[in-house]
Amino acid sequence: MIDAHHHLWDLNAVDYPWLMEKGKKRFFGDPTPIQRNYLIDEHIKLAASLGFKASVHIQVGATDGLEEAKWVNKIVSENQSWPMAQVAFCDLSSDQREIRLDELQRLSSVVGVRQIVGRSPAEDANSKTNELLTSDNFMQGLQSISDRGLSFDLQIIPELSETCAAVFSQFPNLQVILCHAGSPYNRTEEGITSWSSDLNHLSKLSNVSCKLSGLGMFDHNWTQATVAPIVATVMEQFGSARVMFGSNFPVDSLSSSFKALFERLTSIIDEKYFEDVFFKTAQNIYFPNFSSG
What we know:
single chain, eight-stranded parallel beta sheet, 40% helix
C-alpha cells in the first residue's frame, strides 16, 4: 500500500513560518500539538504497522520550497527501503519558474508540484492565491509542468471547483490530483450537498484524480458515519481508478490516530476497490516503476 499524502518536518533543518508561529489557530484547528519535529522514522513506524510500504511527501509551507525539497530528497536517499516520492513547491506564476523547475527536477524524488490555490475563505481574501486562476503566467507554468511530465497537486475550497475545472480542462495531459477531497469544510447537510455539486465539475475531467485525505481537518470529532457520505460521493464521481488514500499525517493526528483513520476508511470502502484506492492509483501517478512485491 502507498500513503499518497503526508508531510515531514524538521524545525531545525527547514524554516516553516506557520509551524514556528505560536498561538494562531488555522483552518484545520489549533496546530500546537504538531508544532514539533515529525520525521521519517515516526511516519514509517505508523504506516508500516498497517501494511504500507511507500509514501508521497507533499510540500508543507516552507519559507524556501527548494530547500525543503532538497531536505526531503536527502531523506529519500538515506532510506532506500522506504520508497518515497515528493511533490514540491514551485511558484508557477514566477518569472524564475523555469529555473526553479530545472533545479527541482535535478532531485530524483520530485514527481510533481503543489501550489495551493485555495486555503480558506478568510485566508484566501488576504493571500489572493485565487488570482492564480486568472494569471497568464500561472497558465504558462501549468503548461510547463505538463510538458515536463510533472503532476500538479491541487488544493482548493469547494467554491473554486467550477473555475478550476475550466482552467485544468485546458491541460488534458497534466495529471491533476485534488487534495483532501476538495476540502468539504462545511459539514452540514446543505454544505455537503453543495460540495458534491461543486466537486462534479472536476470529477468530469479524466485527468483529475482525488485523494481521500484530510477528512478530519474540518471536523475533529469525525466518525466513520460522518465521513461515509463524503467517501461515497468521491467514489461515485471519480471511480476507484482515480481515487487514492492519503493519511495527511501529522496534520490529521489532530483528529485521530493513523490506525483509526485507516480502519474507518477501510470499513467504508468496498473491499473490491482496496487495491485501487490504497495502491494502484497512487502507483500509476506517483510511482510508475514501483512494484508491490
